[in-house]
């Protein structure tokens, strides 16, 4: 047999049907559903009298619209549109018999945090969700990607997806990371190099010593943003770190089933000599703490840098950079560490896990955020929130002056009441800095949780290493 | 998806060119969580006044056409935004066949996905059917997808073209999901094999 990549292996294990032109029906092991992209899909099932083929493999949780304030049990805190979408998910989950984590459940949270936390996501699986950041689950060595509403309906009805295979890309991060440099910086560094379209048509496998040394939380952060580089999915081969994370989770296998699963998972790696269509290698030592200056996730620079001159770009990017700088209210040549901010958001499916909060709390311990700063920390799930409270981390945030919120997507995309006002500038740990992403006219700088904590203290984009 | 084979129904004449999807379903109705229920807002701005009262002169408000199943319209039907809400609204109203000299591309494809047969005919033939439709409830137009013919109330027969695959899907009520369901045996077999190979999934 010719050597296979990890992606090849997972793909081959899930082809339920292959047509002559190579179009495949890919079997889906886990289907995650949230309130925004699913209502019409369920409606479609009703109109055609179809059922959910595998409700036991379908997991629903509201996250995008839900308020994160402590009074959210009061439905009046939601806008009418949001309330209707959340109610629709409630009805659909119950009627079709899905695994469901309603707003009132402590396990509720951002769908991509809940899935792994509950042991739904396991190595070697295919995982889809009507959400582009489904790539997160690739951290387990599962093939995970986002789909559209019509595909959501297709998966609900058939438990398969009509797919053409992508190409293989390898991203290797060698060596070690310097102090103050995190998984977020790694994934941003990759996008900075490939650009937002560099991964288009590919599934990326991240590997190398740096990746091996990351925790599962860190690996999820890396894979989460694979989509920002245009890739269909990001993958990391499972290893002892993965198994240790999965073991004992509510929906992970137990006993003999665990042993059988483990034996299978150990076959999930890229064979020696397997072919990659594209390879990128980065030295871990070369990665500095990064921030974005513009309105595309590829607009990354080390915090020690300056706002670039649009004229230094090539082709169509000149105009885009000009527009970005104007939108962001910056001037070329300005030191990044001189940029003043008024809002800090720590959370999202990129950085809303316990380890992210530990890293931020480490910087915040015994300190206060800059006066007048609006700072919020939004746990990725109710369980992350509970754990942070137990570890005393929540108190560090509160003492520093942060708002300690309930779980949800929150200010990652501003579909709920957590939004930036026009002109407000935010240090955010989320994944998209698009125009208006966090609210109309809002300005977003992406960075790691530790960097966001540092910015909260000084009121400016700050090199976290100066506070360590 | 609803099958479409034969239809004998009342045709509503809407003699306008460039009917765009904004006219078919204005954007304030896109926040819905449903694709059903849009029928009442079909052609909303042409159909209701500012107070929400029906505008009598609009064709679908006239008694003869309230149950129309066919729409005869002008050139370039369905242009503009790609919103699938447009065919959803049309189908929800009960119209499953649209006859026009030409259609916008996306709308044309979206129609088939929603059980609607769009038929493009030469202008002169559309003119004949438009006149026929104007006769109101007395004139039923017959559409036979199998034979690819339209028969006017006077018995005049017009032949139309349709892509063979699209025809197959529509006649059998097959959307993407329907087509995949035709491969249910493969999925069943895969599921059974996977259940023994990876029982923990
Ligand atoms: S946290 Fe942000 S990126 Fe993640 S699922 Fe929610 S809205 Fe999407």
Structure description:
The complex is a heterodimer of chains A (468) and B (201). Chain A has 468 residues and is an alpha/beta fold. In chain A, 31% of the residues lie in helices and 16% in strands. Chain A contains 16 helices and 19 strands. A 5-stranded parallel beta sheet of chain A has the order 5-4-3-6-7, with helices on both faces. A 5-stranded parallel beta sheet of chain A has the order 17-16-15-18-19. In chain A, strand 13 (290-292) and strand 14 form a beta hairpin. The longest helix of chain A has 16 residues, at 80-95. The radius of gyration of chain A is 21 Å and the shape is globular. The model of chain A has no long low-confidence stretch (mean pLDDT 95). Chain B has 201 residues and is of the alpha/beta class. Chain B has 8 helices and 7 strands. A 7-stranded mixed beta sheet of chain B has the order 4-3-2-1-5-6-7. The two termini of chain B are 31 Å apart. The model of chain B has no long low-confidence stretch (mean pLDDT 92). At the A-B interface, strand 1, helix 2, helix 3, helix 5 and helix 10 of A face helix 7 and helix 8 of B. Bound molecules: iron/sulfur cluster.
Mean pLDDT metric of chain B: 92
Q: Which chains make the largest contact?
A: A-B, 38 and 22 residues
Characterize the main sheet of chain B.
7 strands, mixed
Q: Compute the number of strand runs of chain A.
A: 19
What small-molecule ligands were found?
A: iron/sulfur cluster
- Return the string of H and E elements of chain B: EHHEHEHEHEEEHHH
Q: Give me the secondary-structure category of chain B.
A: alpha/beta
The number of E-state strands of chain B comes to 7
Q: Strands of the largest sheet of chain B, in order across it?
A: 4-3-2-1-5-6-7
């Amino acid at each position: 047999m010719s050597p296979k990549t990890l992606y090849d292996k997972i793909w081959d294990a899930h082809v339920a049907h292959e047509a002559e032109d190579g179009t495949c029906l890919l079997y889906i092991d886990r289907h995650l559903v949230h309130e925004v992209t699913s209502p019409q899909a369920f409606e479609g099932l009703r109109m055609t009298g179809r059922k959910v083929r595998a409700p036991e493999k379908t997991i629903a949780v509201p996250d995008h619209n839900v308020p994160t304030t402590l009074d959210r049990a009061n439905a009046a805190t939601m806008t009418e549109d949001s309330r209707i979408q959340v109610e629709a998910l409630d009805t659909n989950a119950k009627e079709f018999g899905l695994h469901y984590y309603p707003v009132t459940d402590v396990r509720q949270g951002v769908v991509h945090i809940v899935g792994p936390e509950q042991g739904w996501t396991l190595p070697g699986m295919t995982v889809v969700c009507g959400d582009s950041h489904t790539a997160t689950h690739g951290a387990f060595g599962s093939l995970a990607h986002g789909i559209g509403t019509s595909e959501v309906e297709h998966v609900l009805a058939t438990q398969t997806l009509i797919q053409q295979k992508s190409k293989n890309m390898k991203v290797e991060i060698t060596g070690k990371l310097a102090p103050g440099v995190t998984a977020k910086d790694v994934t941003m560094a990759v996008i900075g190099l490939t650009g937002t379209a560099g991964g288009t048509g590919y599934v990326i496998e991240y590997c190398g010593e740096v990746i091996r040394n990351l925790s599962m939380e860190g690996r999820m952060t890396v894979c989460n943003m694979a989509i920002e580089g245009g890739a269909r999915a990001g993958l990391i081969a499972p290893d002892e770190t993965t198994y240790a994370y999965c073991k004992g989770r509510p929906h992970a296998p137990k006993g003999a089933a665990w042993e059988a699963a483990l034996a299978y998972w150990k076959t999930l790696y890229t064979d020696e000599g397997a072919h990659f269509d594209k390879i990128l290698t980065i030295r871990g030592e070369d990665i500095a703490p990064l921030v974005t200056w513009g309105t595309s996730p590829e607009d990354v620079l080390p915090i020690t840098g300056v706002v670039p001159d649009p004229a230094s770009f090539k082709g169509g990017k000149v105009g885009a950079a000009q527009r970005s700088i104007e939108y962001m209210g910056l001037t070329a040549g300005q030191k990044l560490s001189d940029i003043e901010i008024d809002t800090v958001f720590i959370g999202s499916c990129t950085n809303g896990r316990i380890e992210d909060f530990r890293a931020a709390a480490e910087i915040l311990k015994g300190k206060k955020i800059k006066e007048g700063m609006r700072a919020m920390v939004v746990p990725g799930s109710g369980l992350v929130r509970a754990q942070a409270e137990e570890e005393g981390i929540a108190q560090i945030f509160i003492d520093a002056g942060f708002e300690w919120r309930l779980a949800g997507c929150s200010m990652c995309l501003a579909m709920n009441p957590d939004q930036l006002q026009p002109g407000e500038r935010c240090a955010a740990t989320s994944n998209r800095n698009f125009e208006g992403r966090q609210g109309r006219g809002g300005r977003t700088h992406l960075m790691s949780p530790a960097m966001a904590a540092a910015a909260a203290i000084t009121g400016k984009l700050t090199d976290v290493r100066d506070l360590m | 998806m609803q099958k479409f084979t034969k239809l004998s129904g009342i045709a509503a004449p809407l003699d306008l060119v460039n009917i765009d999807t904004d006219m078919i379903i204005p954007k304030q109705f896109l926040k819905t969580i449903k694709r059903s229920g849009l029928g009442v807002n079909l052609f909303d701005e042409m159909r209701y006044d500012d107070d929400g009262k029906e505008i009598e002169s609009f064709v679908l408000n006239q008694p003869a056409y309230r149950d129309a199943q066919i729409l005869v319209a002008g050139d370039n039907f369905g242009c503009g935004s790609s919103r699938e809400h447009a065919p959803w609204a049309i189908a929800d109203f009960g119209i499953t066949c649209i006859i026009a000299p030409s259609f916008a591309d996306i709308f044309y494809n979206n129609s088939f996905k929603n059980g609607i047969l769009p038929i493009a005919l030469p202008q002169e033939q559309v003119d004949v059917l438009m006149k026929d439709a104007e006769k109101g409830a007395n004139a039923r137009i017959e559409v036979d997808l199998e034979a690819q013919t339209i028969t006017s109330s006077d018995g005049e027969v017009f032949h139309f073209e349709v892509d063979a695959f699209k025809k197959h899907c529509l006649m059998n009520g097959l959307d993407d999901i329907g087509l995949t369901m035709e491969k249910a045996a493969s999925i069943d077999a895969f599921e059974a094999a996977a259940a023994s190979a990876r029982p923990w999934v």
